[in-house]
Design goal:
2 copies of one chain form a homodimer. Chain A is an alpha/beta fold and 251 residues long. Chain A folds into 2 domains: 4-76, Ribosomal protein L30/S12 (60s Ribosomal Protein L30, Chain: A); 81-248, Alpha/beta knot, CATH 3.40.1280. Chain A contains 9 helices and 12 strands. In chain A, the strands form 2 sheets. In chain A, strands 5-8-7-6-11-9-12-10 form an 8-stranded parallel β-sheet, sandwiched between helices. In chain A, strand 6 (98-103), helix 5 (108-120) and strand 7 (125-129) form a beta-alpha-beta unit. In chain A, helix 1 (9-18) runs parallel beside helix 2 and helix 5 (108-120) packs parallel to helix 9. Chain A starts with a strand and ends with a helix.
Chain lengths: 251, 251
Amino acid sequence: MEHTVIYGKNAVIEALEANNREFNRILISNSARSDVKIERIKELAAELGIIFQFVDVRKLNQIEPEGRHQGVIAQISPIKYTDLDDFIEENKDTKECSVVILDGIEDSHNTGAIIRSCVCAGVQGIILPSRRGVLINSTVEKTSAGAANNIKIIKVNSLTGAVQKLKENNYWVIASDHHAEDNYYDIDYTNMNTALIMGAEHSGISRSLLKLSDFKVKIPMLTNFNSLNVSNAAAIILFEMVRQKMKQRGA
Amino acid sequence: MEHTVIYGKNAVIEALEANNREFNRILISNSARSDVKIERIKELAAELGIIFQFVDVRKLNQIEPEGRHQGVIAQISPIKYTDLDDFIEENKDTKECSVVILDGIEDSHNTGAIIRSCVCAGVQGIILPSRRGVLINSTVEKTSAGAANNIKIIKVNSLTGAVQKLKENNYWVIASDHHAEDNYYDIDYTNMNTALIMGAEHSGISRSLLKLSDFKVKIPMLTNFNSLNVSNAAAIILFEMVRQKMKQRGA
């Protein structure tokens, strides 16, 4: 079996709970202090019939040399990417379906943090270009705290093509762009399907995608310091969408 | 001169622009492609009479072995911490003065990203405990994209003491706590001084600080996935404060 590794207690727990990946085995450091999370991993692994082995910590350090494994590594099947057509079809009855499009984000930590925020904000899918920016790797999975298992990850050859298809299928496209005139909180995001585009750390959103967008929004700043980290910017806009939806539900 | 290093193009540019640190020298890699940012660094360094040297990239790799220096490292004086009493005194006429208190945040990337968001959101000060969590190090400065130079960093021995002092000085204390009943957007943050407490990644805010808080707020989620990254949570609450202030100003 082709496999990838995920590491860190939360990432492994989330993957076990999501139960949509094939596990080869879980390696736990001999010297890992047993805690609630380690116990939870052992319990879930036993339930699902997954092998777990206690090994010397040096073995884990070999697999993940940057020492962020927290004493736990799982060898599992790579994340399954979803096809955009399938995603649209599966969600055709989802009320207020939302996707986030990452246009060339290059930092795995940012990608992971955005995926985590997306899951918390009830976003159904993440769209990544197959040739620009990062795809799902171990760092993304770790930083997402396992959230990558709880959302559809859609890989496309052309973001322009994807955006056109979303528009044809009744999605409204919102671009986060700091040159925009509208503030992000002036758009009413309720009662519609949304596709939010976040651009690369330095270069922003590509011109062809900006042109296709229905709304361009900026996050107004109280100082003119350069800009927000892209994962923080995504969180701010996504949770404004949540705020509006919660308000509408009377919460 | 005792010095620290900062690295990365943005971090160095911001430190030069803020011009509140003493520079020993700036090292630029021989093989760094000259671009707008490198040119800006040379221009600012020349203006300020700061020595810059072209060196072999291996020299930079020795100083910052994780390869995130982007070809630029500056040796500068450590960040100056501000005293809480001085901060309160200096800001006694600031309208809607706001500070963010980091209660034991352990990850330098999170601390740096929070500082960056704070500067964008017009926050005046960051309060860090001297003995728990990270202080300002090179990774924090890099992740903050240099924002650490544009805000007062206040180091205190006791967060409880600091919160009591802020309350005596007319600050309203808001704790981000996912057990809270109120949603973060249900508080009116305008026309008051605020102190927002963000808790450690795993353990949250300590009980003694929660008890002292005037408001406890949660960020409602649309799924029950565990939780947001702490820097994203901070950005969401800080920019709700900005949203309210902008609305009040009619923007």
